[in-house]
Structures are given as C-alpha cells and as structure tokens.
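User: Fold this; tokens only.

Assistant: Input:
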Amino acid sequence: MSYNILVTGGAGYLGSTMVPDLLAAGHRVTVLDNFMFKQASLNHVCFHPNFNVVKGDIRIESVMAPLMKKADVIIPLAALVGAPLCNLDPIGATTINHDAITMMVKNLSQQQIVLMPTTNSAYGTGDENHYCTEDSPLRPISQYAIEKVAVEKELMQHANAISFRLATVFGMSPRLRLDLLVNDFTYRAVVDRCVVLFESHFKRNYIHVRDVSKAFQHGLNNFDKMKGQIYNVGLSDANVSKKELCEHIQKQIPQFTYIEAPVGKDPDQRNYIVSNAKIEATGYQPDFSLDRGIGELIKGYTMIRNSIYGNV
C-alpha cells in the first residue's frame, strides 16, 4: 500500500537514509527541514517524482498544519538529538523536541498514523541487573531523554501511533554524525589510533541507521498489529560496554589502542542491557551487525576527514 508520508527533519542522519527507502517502497514523501546544518543530504532523491521538500520550522503551526493535512503518515524525526546538543541550546531543545510535538499531536486526525522515534536512554541505569524491557521504569537523566519520555506519553494517547525506542545508532549516512559512540570511536581508531575511555564498563545497545529505516517500514507494513505499542529497536547481540566496543574495533584495526581513565562521566549516565524481544516477535530482524557497521565506517572514513583546518 502506498502512503503520503510527511517526514520532519528528513535531511538529517536518520531521514537522509530513510527517505530514499520510503521512495523506493513506492510512497510519496514530503520532507520538512530547516537545513540548520547546511546539509545537501537529499540531493540524490530530487529527481524522484514522488519526492517533495519544504524548507521550514516544525515549531510554526502555519507551516506544519497544511503539510499534516495532506499526510496519511507522519514520521517526526526533527529534533535536537542527544544530551550535549540539548545542553548547548536548552530552550531550542524544549521548543523543538517537546513543544513542536505537542502541537503536532493536537493537529492530528484520528486516522493519521504516527511513527515516532524516541530513545532507550530513558532507562537510565535500568534495574538492579541493568536489564530493560519496554515495561521497565523510566529514569531519564538528560534533558533530551526527559523530553522524549514526555512526548512519548502524549503520543501514546493517539490511537494510531507507534513509538520506537531507538538504541544508539551507528553507520554511514548521507548526513553523517560523528558524535554517536560507534561512529566516534571508529573515527578515532582510523585517524588517531587511540581513545581514552571513561566509565568503560558502562553498557548500552546499538542499531545500524539502515535497520532503523527498516524498523519504521516494518511498523508501517504491520501497523494493525503493532499500533498503540512501544518497541525497543536494537541489536540483541550488541549490548556491549565501551571497552567491548573498542575490542570489536580492534578486530578490524589492530593498531587501535584504548586507555581506561579513572575520571569522567557520561552526561546521561546510560548503563543498561536492553531487550529487543518484543519487536523481534513481530517478525523484525536487523540486517547489519556491529562488526559490519564498523567495517562500513572504516571505508567511509577513508574518504572523510573531520576538519576544515590543516593540510592533511
């Protein structure tokens, strides 16, 4: 079945991978993005007759409302993502990550489908065994996680919604992010051959950016049996610590070394093992392993250097 889909923030890290996939599946896709990072990550889909793009701000109701009226499905990816960016602009984070979503929910019709990315960082440190399912208590610490929890509660009052609590995403994308943990550590391994770890025993779950896109399409294709539910989305064999992540990278870059520092803290104190059994029971299985994603990043970083200064 073909849908009219509105993707906010569609030129970002997730969206620039997801939008081509949605077009390839036969959907009509409109992207609303403010292009705050001056990205040209959707250049390769401008040829497509079912692609449309609008430059604008999701916080402005007169911009969002007419686009929403034309949509069967809304995928609200636009956000200031992660604790450090939200700390840099806490007011912008609240207005984009919470207030704009509240406005969107207010303008939804009962029939419209919403596929919402949230975060499993809301689990904080999990239970006494650091184990988390969708029914585990939420203990968000960072502003980002706190506001994602709040909008998830509002969204789940809408009958036709699915919330995907995403693990830490990794992998190459047309709009690349180097601040995500696997992407960051692999870049440091390629460029510096070394990284300093703090709280190296802290575990978290991971998921490839293309498998996030696959999860959203899976939700759309199986919407009747999945709607009204919250699903963790991650690799069940990739609940690994920072130290274990470095060991995975070392398998492909033997010269890479790491030092465990006695000081320093994560801003949101994530330390948990996440169960993805619920979404797997619906038939969803990711395609990209952690090792495969690291290999992909190594190839990408052969072409990319994260500096505008210097001669090398």
